[in-house]
Amino acid sequence: MDVGIGLPNTVPGTEPSRLLDWARQAEGAGFSTLGTIGRLVYQGYEELIALTAAAAVTSRIRLTTSVLLAPLYANAALLAKQAASLERISAGRFVLGVGLGGRDDDFAASGLSTKGRGRRFEEQLREMKDIWSGEERGFAGAIGPRTVRDGGPELILGGTTAASFRRVAELGDGWIMGGGTPEMFAQAAAGVDAAWADAKRPGTARKLSLAYFALGPDARAQADSYLLDYYGFLGDVAGQVAASAAVTPDMVRAYVAAFEAAGCDELILVPTGSGLDQIELLAEAMT
């Protein structure tokens, strides 16, 4: 199983220079990918822009939106162009992870309704895939740039419903779980595999998951401070999310082993702080 690390693009107070230093150090530490999470109504850096900055100072590590809330990007053609541009700039390292999103305020701030978002999401995915395939747009020709990877960036879809699994099988290259236990991952992954088989897709879907971490003497306080704020809209559930963060090297190792046993192909460990020591401490916990 590959192990990636999140970019602290949503951690309050993170300076732009810290994002660049983080990206360089994460690549040097050998992590498989830099992942981003994001919301619109929050003090954080937009994911495509943050990963483009990271692409400029790295050369090997993958760059993954894990996940981007695609329905908020209502112009599918423009999102397709942005994703293709980042994939090209990064020499094919960009992985586009997308999901529906679950916060009404993000949609309200975008002037969008949550009603019918699943249908719109599928239409958006199909349009982007057509654009990446080089389909002529009639009135203006094809939309570029041409991607390094045939057919566009690797496309990873989030969600834990039957409809989400069907979308993965019909439109995606893989699936990602945005949070939860290894047991929850294994159960959902079985649903993904079943949908993949029903769609008669060859091979298997690549499966990813996220888990939060904080390490060092103030790990628990760091995790609680960030996660209780970021997930405050969930009420009591925010406490459960915070409590699930890996805050010791033993917890990190246990999570990695459990997700690997559950069939996870890549686990992205998302930081709750932006101190560069977190990269070194996580790398040490993996050894």
Automatic annotation (TrEMBL):
It holds the Pfam family Bac_luciferase. Coiled coil: none annotated. This is LLM class flavin-dependent oxidoreductase. The keyword Oxidoreductase applies. Keywords: Flavoprotein, FMN, Monooxygenase, Oxidoreductase. InterPro entries: Luciferase-like_dom, Luciferase-like_sf, SsuD_RutA_monooxygenase. Residues 8-234 form the Luciferase-like domain. PANTHER family: ALKANESULFONATE MONOOXYGENASE, ALKANESULFONATE MONOOXYGENASE-RELATED. It comes from the Bacteria.
